[in-house]
Structure formats: C-alpha cells, structure tokens
C-alpha cells in the first residue's frame, strides 16, 4: 500500500471514530432528554394531557410505507426513534409509554429496551415522513389544501375551515364564516332597534319589542283600524283621537247626560242644538243667581271686615290704657314701699328719744289708762 492509500485509510478511520463518538454523544443527549420527559410526566394529570396517539392523524396523499407506520399507534410516526437492540422504530410518545412500564420490551419481537442508551432519534426517518404530502384535517368540510406534513400545523393555524368558538354564543363556527356569524347569525349579537334606535341582543328581540320599545308600532286597542301607532303615543290616541273611545258631551257641565263613542258625537251635537241652548240658558241663569249670592256675601264680608277693624283698633286702645294703668300701679307700689320704710325709720328715732327704761309703747299704754 503506497503512502497515498495509507493516508486515505487513516482519514477514513478517523472519520468513522468521530462518527461513533458523535452518535454516542447524541444518543446520550436524547436519552437524557427522554428521561427528563419521563420525570416531567410522572403525574396522572400530566399523563392524561398527553396525546391519545403519538403519530400523525392526517389523511396522506403520498403513499406511506409500512415501516413508516408506528406499531403502537398504527399511525405515521411522529418524532421517530429507533431501538438499538432490534432496530424497530416508534413515535417518541409511543416509546415514552413503553418505557413507563416495569419491563419495557419491543412490541414487535419482545426484546428488552434499555431506558438508558437503548434507543436514539432517527431524524432522517422523521424527515422523510415530514416530506410526505397530506390533506388538511378540514378537507371533509371543504378545505382543498394539500402540502407537506411539515407545513400542516402552520396551515391549521390559518385554515379558514377550522372551527372557532364564538365569543358571545360559544357556538363553533368555521373561521371563514365567523365575521358573517358575528354580524348576521349570532343570537347574542347586538342589534339596533329600527323603531327606537336602542341596542339589544338579537335573542331578546321579542322581549324588547313587546315590553321595552317605546316606538314599536301597535294597533289601537279599541280596534278602530288605526295601525302603526308608536307605543308611547297609543294612550294619547285613545284619549284624544280614537273614534271608538267612549266620551261625554262637551255640554256635560251644563247638564247634558250624553255618553257614547266619539264617532257619534258629531251627530249628537247636530241633533241637540236646541237642547244645548236651553241647558246653556239655565246654566247662565243659575250662574247669575250664584253671582248675586256672591255679591251679597261680599257686602256682608265687607261689613264684617269693617267691624273687625274697629274691634282691632279698640283692642289697641285698651291695650295702651292697660299698659298705662300697669305703669301707674307699679309707681304707687314703689311709693308705698318708700313710705313704709320712712315710717319704720321714724319709729326707731322716736324710741331713741324716749326716757330710759320706758318704751314708746309703754308710755302710750299709760297715757291711755289715764283717760
């Protein structure tokens, strides 16, 4: 072997060694990733959150090879992984389910699968599957999209045939019809009343029109034939305009007893002119008599008012005299009190000028006895 051949062989051996080292490193990373994934999904709740099937649930246009089908979920493999011992391939999630058992074995040949280092990610296999063409999941409802599997998830995010929940009524509506649903179909959409211009939910239309709309057109309750009367004007129509409303004669205050529908009132007025004139005459006579009585009452009132004024003046005069007398009494009482005090002072002075041992009273008594 010449030097050139030996150099080529050395390069080949070096490449193979580096490939084995890279594969070992990759497998170690994948094993660690799957182990971490097993730890993260240890709870029952998270276990239920995993997909029911690990593979792709699409309708494939291209032929799917038998060895591209996962033997666990029987679907085209998602994130294909391959065991080292037997070389069988599975979906990553399907292998995850196998490794959770106490004794993980391959479902094809029952060979043991090591949890550490017993498998590796087959990216080439996964890439081939992702290149297969599939139909949109909404193809049954009309979507004609066909594309590579790798683009299917992105298409689903914008597919107009995917159903979304209406934010108001929570119905599932295809995206392409959602705007129309919001504007024309949703029972909870806001609409404007054509009569009163107030907004309400479409499902409440009957309630709004029957109870709340002030301009909703109604028919006259007297069945007079009037239609399209706004609700807020119906009462005025019945009381002022309806020909079938029962009314009284305009001369009722004069004594006319007529009471019938408004439609007959004009005929009554035409045929009862004389009667109304007599009633009016009698009313005028009675009014004149009442005016005369009121005149007499007014004169009496004036007299009573005059007497009342005189009495008021007299009362005022008496009040003044009483006030003066009260002042005079107070002055006399003051003078009397002053005189009483003077008498007491004089009595004390007299007692002082009397002889010792004899008081004024004793002298007075002696003098009286001498007589």
Automatic annotation (TrEMBL):
Residues 21-49 are annotated as: Disordered. The lineage of its organism: Eukaryota, Metazoa, Cnidaria, Anthozoa, Hexacorallia. Pfam families: zf-C3HC4_2, zf-TRAF. This is RING-type domain-containing protein. Residues 22-47 have a biased composition (Acidic residues). Residues 322-349 form a coiled coil. One of its GO terms (molecular function) is zinc ion binding. Keywords: Coiled coil, Metal-binding, Zinc, Zinc-finger. It comes from the Eukaryota. A zinc finger (TRAF-type) spans 155-196, 207-256. The keyword Zinc-finger applies. The keyword Coiled coil applies.
């Amino acid at each position: 072997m010449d030097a050139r051949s030996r150099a080529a062989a050395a390069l080949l051996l070096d490449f193979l060694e580096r490939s084995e080292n890279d594969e070992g490193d990759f497998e170690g990373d994948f094993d660690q990733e799957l182990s971490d994934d097993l730890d993260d999904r240890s709870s029952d709740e998270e276990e239920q959150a995993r997909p029911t099937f690990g593979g792709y649930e699409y309708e494939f246009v291209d032929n799917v090879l038998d060895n591209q089908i996962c033997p666990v979920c029987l679907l085209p493999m998602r994130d294909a992984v391959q065991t080292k011992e037997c070389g069988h391939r599975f979906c990553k999630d399907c292998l995850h389910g196998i490794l959770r058992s106490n004794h993980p074995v391959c479902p094809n040949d029952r060979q043991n699968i090591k949890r550490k280092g017993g498998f590796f990610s087959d990216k080439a296999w996964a890439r081939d599957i992702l290149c297969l063409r599939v139909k949109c999941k909404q193809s049954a409802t009309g979507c004609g999209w066909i594309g590579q599997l790798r683009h299917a998830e992105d298409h689903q995010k914008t597919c107009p045939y995917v159903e979304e929940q209406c934010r108001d009524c929570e119905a599932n509506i295809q995206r392409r019809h959602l705007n129309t649903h919001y504007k024309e179909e949703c029972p909870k959409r806001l609409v404007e009343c054509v009569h009163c211009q107030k907004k309400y939910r479409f499902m409440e239309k009957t309630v709004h029109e029957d109870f709340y709309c002030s301009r909703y057109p109604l028919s006259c309750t007297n069945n007079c034939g009037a239609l399209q009367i706004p609700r807020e004007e119906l009462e005025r129509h019945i009381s002022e305009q309806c020909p079938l409303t029962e009314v009284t004669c305009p001369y009722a205050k004069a004594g006319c007893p007529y009471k019938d529908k408004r439609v007959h009132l004009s005929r009554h007025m035409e045929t009862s002119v004389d009667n109304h004139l007599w009633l009016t005459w009698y009313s005028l006579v009675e009014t004149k008599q009442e005016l005369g009585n009121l005149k007499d009452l007014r004169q009496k009132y004036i007299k009573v008012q005059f007497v009342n004024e005189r009495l008021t003046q007299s009362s005022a005069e008496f009040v003044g005299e009483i006030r003066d007398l009260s002042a005079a009494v107070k002055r006399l009482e003051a003078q009397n009190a002053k005189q009483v005090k003077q008498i007491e002072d004089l009595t004390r002075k007299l007692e002082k000028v009397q002889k010792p041992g004899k008081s004024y009273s004793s002298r007075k008594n002696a003098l009286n006895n001498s007589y």
